[in-house]
Amino acid sequence: MAAACDHDHDIHGLEGRALQAELSVAEVRCAQEDQRLTAPRRRVLELLLQHGQPMKAYDLIASFTADGPPAKPPTVYRALDFLEKQGFAHRIESLNAYVACRRGPQSHAAAFLICDCCGRSREIEPVGLDALDDIATSAGYVVDAVTIEAHGRCGACRA
Ligand SMILES: [Zn+2]
Ligand SMILES: [Zn+2]
Ligand SMILES: [Zn+2]
Asked: How far is the CA of 26 from the centre of ligand 1 (A)?
């Protein structure tokens, strides 16, 4: 990612044992919910966890097969759809990217602190949901999903 500042922007996701353990947890969770973590779903989740940060769909498509032709886009999009519905990933609209979620167990309202300098995103507990619901209700709305995306600079980039 192009950075506005010149400090180290290395960000790492999960690898090795920690990555395998997280994928096993996902498999168990799927089985408990009568869902299957098929090979493509597992692969996309693996990539997101490895990356640790929001990832664009075309990067997922490109890295899907380690060596060989890239994945068929629908395969990746269908996997992302599943991961999102099951609460394993979120779509961050303002970045047009996806990020793994380890907060489970189901899909949930989410809030992100996004650093516009290094691209780091951190999921936090959303606040003010009750107030939002009240306002929505009085306006005659039913809220199905909420994702709050706050942009700014992380501590490392402000230093
Ligand atoms: Zn989440
Ligand atoms: Zn940053
Ligand atoms: Zn920075």
From this structure: 14
